[in-house]
Write a structure and sequence with these properties.
The structure holds two protein chains of two kinds. Chain A has helices at 19-31, 57-64, 75-88, 102-115, 155-167, 188-197, 214-222, 258-267, 279-288, and strands at residues 10-14, 34-39, 47-48, 51-54, 68-71, 92-95, 118-120, 126-129, 133-136, 145-152, 172-177, 203-209, 229-234, 271-273. In chain A, 35% of the residues lie in helices and 23% in strands. Chain B is α+β, with helices and mostly antiparallel strands. In chain B, α2 packs across α3 (65-76). Classes of the chains: A alpha/beta, B alpha+beta. The interface between A and B is large, with 64 and 50 residues.
């Protein structure tokens, strides 16, 4: 079992001929992901890493039966690419692109919701089902199958914590990057509820950061969860009113603070790590103590 | 990108939203000329991006040439949240029957724009009781139709001509919000004069990510010189006030690096997210930015994924030798091409840690 994607997921890479698209196609294939098609308008008929290239997502879906797509299109064209994939009938859409205008994100997320499409991102590292499927950009060796579900807003911090877990002999079931922007397709609550129902997941690591109220909403859900949750929140020393790298990582008008999130999560029964390297110890404690 | 009040009001005017008659002035003489043109009692307002100008004593009323000149001189000499005042807005004083609050902004959790209104204008919306605030989420496929304005007006106990005017206002404000890629359009207070609505203030923030398609808008620089230089390199930088310069790759791990240093009793000088996949050249230039703060120690924390450790190591080596840097460097480096990166550093006499918290502890020790 895995959540959202698995070994049967058939993936299209949008803008497969770009630098990022072609590089990550090679990496995803090496991971074992079934990348069945790519798109690049005007380049239909070519191949990239042995994967056939189509002019449109619709052609790619009809020719290959793909049910997921990953977008490596620059920000100005990302909304168009997302609408194209949604209307072509994919079930899962992963939007890697960073710096998409928030109005475009709102548009594409509303359309996806109307059509029942699950969107991961925008501004995400993607999703990894250990040993089965990776749709996104993390290096392949960061992951090994195991009982820990990971859900995060940030990429490199996820790799850091995943590596800490692996050093402690703990692998992952599925790792989901919600995305670092203000408006993203999945919430912590969406993913926590999938992990709660997933037989392959025994405990969950939630990696949050300052800004917004997704962690506070997660805390309300965690109160009723059976599976244990370990949380780490980044941004304790961030000054208010400053965007800390991610569009969504900002304390605005006193909302989205570190203290508020930690208090909510601890109050809900989650174990909250002060520093990233404390996460594996807390997972061991909740799983085996 | 925040716009100054006078810029926001120019946009309002262009979208059919009534604003007070006004002139921009850069000194007492221009302020007096503005008063002569406007007549009666005027309001002298500093054009700064910080809020709470009134509470800081920055909003002055004046009814004569002498009063206007004095108010202008006083306000131009003030600072608001560290911001100097370059421009004043000299504005007609409105006849106020009632003050309202109206805003459009992004609700990330709802993945929608949200209309926020209240009949308690003139105070911070955070201080208004939740029950007195009307919030309506906007389906992007529907947009703001006049009925949404009428319903909101009704809940603010408006009727008659005020209700219809309010509906037009809301439609116009949303049109501006969408067409100019705003992430905040706030009118506080929105003044009902007894006959019409007038926007007495304007807070407009444009989505930075959409500036590429808004060539017609003015550009307002709120970044420091270093933040601007980093942005031009495609990197994200925030000035802090400690003595440990920090570079890491990725927003989350950079924040966690600052938190780890602070946890161990250190004081970071900056946030610098060098991004994923940064090459040698860009990394070397990013490192140079760190010297601007004269740090006691430079801490580089790289978890190589897309970023290759050997690229970063080459950047560090060339930075150290070419710039003759004598500030101690603490490097933590793991991940892709780690062995090669470590070897390159060792050849240059630089050792690299593997464990983040151990490296952070050394950086803190060297910063004392």
């Amino acid at each position: 079992m895995a959540i959202i994607v698995d070994e049967n997921t058939r993936v299209i890479v949008q803008n497969i001929t770009g630098r990022q698209g072609s590089f990550h196609t090679r990496q995803m294939l090496a991971f074992g992901t079934r990348v069945v098609a790519g798109t690049a308008p005007g380049k239909g008929g070519q191949t990239v890493e042995g994967v056939p290239v189509f002019d449109t997502v619709d052609q790619a879906v009809r020719a290959t039966g793909a049910d997921a797509s990953v977008i490596f299109i620059p920000a100005a064209g990302a909304r168009d690419g997302a609408f194209e994939a949604i209307d072509a009938g994919v079930r899962v859409l992963v939007v890697i692109t960073e710096h998409i205008p928030v109005a475009d994100e709102i548009d594409l997320l509303a359309h996806a919701r109307r059509k029942g499409v699950t969107v991961i991102g925008p501004n995400t590292f993607g999703i990894v089902s250990s040993g089965k499927c990776k749709i996104g950009i993390p290096a392949n060796h960061f992951f090994t199958p195991g009982p820990v579900g990971v859900v995060a807003r940030s990429g490199t911090l996820t790799y850091e914590i995943a590596a800490n877990l692996m050093d402690a002999g703990l692998g992952q079931s599925t790792v989901v990057g919600l995305g670092g922007d203000r408006a993203v397709g999945l919430s912590f609550v969406d993913v926590l509820s999938l992990f709660e129902a997933d037989p392959a997941t025994a405990a969950v690591v939630l990696i949050g950061e300052i800004g917004g109220n997704a962690e506070e909403e997660a805390a309300a859900y965690i109160t009723g969860m059976k599976k244990p949750v370990v949380a780490y929140i980044a941004g304790k020393s961030a000054p208010p009113g400053k965007r800390m790298g991610h569009a969504g990582a900002i304390i605005e008008r006193g909302r989205g603070t570190f203290a508020g999130k930690v208090q909510a999560l601890a109050g809900a029964g989650a174990q909250v790590a002060s520093l990233p390297h404390e996460v594996p110890g807390l997972i061991r404690k909740v799983l085996y103590a | 990108m925040k716009l100054f009040e006078y810029m926001g009001k120019e946009l309002f005017r262009a979208y059919g939203i009534k604003v007070p008659a006004s002139r921009v002035a850069t000194g007492p003489r221009e302020a007096v000329a503005a008063w002569e043109a406007l007549g009666g009692t005027v309001v002298v307002k500093p054009q700064v991006l910080a809020g709470k100008r009134g509470k800081a004593g920055g909003i002055r009323f004046a009814s004569s040439a002498a009063e206007v000149a004095k108010a202008a001189g006083d306000v131009l000499a003030m600072e608001f949240g560290g911001q100097k005042v370059d421009k004043l807005l000299i504005e007609e004083k409105l006849a106020i029957a009632r003050e309202y609050y109206l805003a459009l902004t992004v609700d990330g959790a709802a993945r929608k724009a949200v209309l926020i209104a209240s009949a308690s204008g003139g105070m911070d919306i955070e201080e208004v009781a939740e029950a007195a605030i009307v919030k309506r989420h906007i389906d992007p496929a529907v947009g703001v139709q006049p009925y949404l304005g009428r319903e909101t007006a009704g809940r603010l106990a408006l009727g008659g001509t005020a209700l219809k005017q309010f509906a037009d206002l809301v439609v116009n404000l949303y049109r501006l919000y969408r067409e100019k890629d705003a992430e905040l359009c706030e009118i506080n207070p929105l003044v009902w004069t007894g006959g019409e609505f007038v926007a007495a203030d304007a807070k407009v923030t444009i989505d930075d990510e959409a500036l590429f398609r808004q060539p017609g808008l003015p550009r307002v620089e709120e970044k420091t010189a270093t933040e601007r230089a980093a942005a031009d390199l495609g990197l994200s930088y925030v000035q802090l006030d400690g003595n440990i310069a920090v570079m890491a790759n990725g927003a989350g791990i950079t924040m966690a690096t600052l938190d780890t240093l602070a946890h161990l009793g250190g004081a970071p000088a900056n946030f610098l997210d060098a991004g994923g996949g940064t090459g040698t050249e860009a990394t070397a230039r990013a490192l140079e930015l760190l010297l601007a703060n004269n740090p006691r120690v430079i801490f580089v924390n790289i978890f190589g994924g897309i970023t290759r450790c050997d690229d970063v190591a080459r950047a560090i080596v060339s930075f150290k030798s070419e710039r003759q840097v004598d500030v101690p460097l603490v490097i933590r480096m793991v991940g892709t091409n780690e062995d090669e990166g470590r070897r390159l550093l060792q050849e240059a006499g630089i050792s690299a840690h593997r464990v983040m918290v151990e490296a952070a502890a050394e950086a803190v020790r060297l910063s004392r």
